[in-house]
Amino acid sequence: MIPLLSLLGPVIGKVLDLIPDPAKRAQAKAEAELAIRDQEQKLLDSLLKADQSQVDVNKVEAAHSSLFVSGWRPFVGWTCGAGFAWATVIQPVLVFLLAAFHHSMVTPQIQTEVLIQALFGLLGMGAMRSFEKIKGVASK
Q: Which end of the chain is more exposed for a tag (fewer CB within 10 A), N or C?
């Protein structure tokens, strides 16, 4: 929906250029810009509301006494961290050391595509967070 809003500006501008009266054209342009800003604000408000709802769910899960409810997020975080460490540091260094000492051993390879996607999701590195920061509504 966000790309659609950003595409509307130039299209509306071209349509408004067809209005012959300069005063009416300026008024229509101001109204269109206000409407687009209003829609962007509504979208941001709904995204922030959804984020707050997720935060509330996270608080309830974290306070739960069962490890299967409160421990899944740390488990996924540690799993992603360990996999990332293996794929980027440990495995390459191990391969180098094995080659340096003339050992032939095949080390396991992991699929980092899925790992990176999960890690970015856990770290909040999605596009919506970037959009919030650009619009100046990022939390401090």
A: C
